């Protein structure tokens, strides 16, 4: 099987703001009808609600994104309102149900977009895609993920993957090399723990769905992308031993105190405290998404009160089923247009500007590490020189993974909503010994099979190298 049209010039997906989110089970199943929206005249005010936190991040979006768009389209005023992630999801869900809310909808996941499209609360973007040639500018796999019954309902905000951040200074001082396999990873973990250092920092206190980040890592790096693909396409079961083994291994790392310091600390230590300890060298690594790259720097250097530096590595293969430099791939949110919007053409102008202005898009990628990686066509040598080399390596590494077919699947994009929610909620029961790994996987398999039959899974990236 050949891969999707994902050449090295065809990058990924954008505007990473907060970290990857939990899919929200649809509250809109009972909604019907069109929503009473209209195209408008392509001018006027466009409302956007978005989950960007922090003064500096909000200022950048206001100045560079909103300001850049308004400069390009002086007859359109953009009104951006900032919310926290969970607040935004609740407010958007309620607004769509009542056929009100923002013109541009910041959605959480591809599977939720499918549910919203079936509830007729999102505008069909197919005519805009044809008008502006979006299918030729955006990654084919990302377009497919938001296409339902041949209609396009959203555009991807950011490509997500999982990385292993490490305290570079600590590694150098201890003489540690980057682990290349499970044996080396576990030897490192034993040695770090022996020094009183937490091998893998992690916490779910600020983001309840954090456990699915870990399951994404273990299913892709233990079970392997081929097994995950087989399960997602119904040719295997999530209750199969290969998936149970991955959950069992993750739990064993928790039981040893390797992840977060202990199960209790995983559920109680704030992410900021974990990050501060990472910067100080009390935590050796942090398995996190690429979105963490825009935040990790605050814990290192003079401003953080230390002389340490950080870097990242791919999670090493944890079984013979996995090749080195395997990256799980997914989408961190979406932009859609509210079916109830009275100004859909103006909202579409923003989407076309955001994804179609190559110079501005590449500038955002360089300015804010791993946050605005829009799925546009460009070559590696077009990436601005000012970009942090670590952020550039994310772009080039993911391109290579896609070119070679060495990619897996993140849970928050490719698992249907209820199954995705169970991934992290059920894992909490496993960690607290209220459910065995086998029972967890069996329940997930049952739930997944039900949702798969309901047609709530986006079109998957097929196995094989991109063209």
Automatic annotation (TrEMBL):
Keywords associated with the record: Signal
InterPro entries recorded: Bact_solute-bd_prot1, SBP, TAT_signal
Gene3D superfamilies the UniProt entry points to: Periplasmic binding protein-like II (3.40.190.10)
Signal peptide range in chain numbering: 1-29
Protein name as annotated: ABC transporter substrate-binding protein
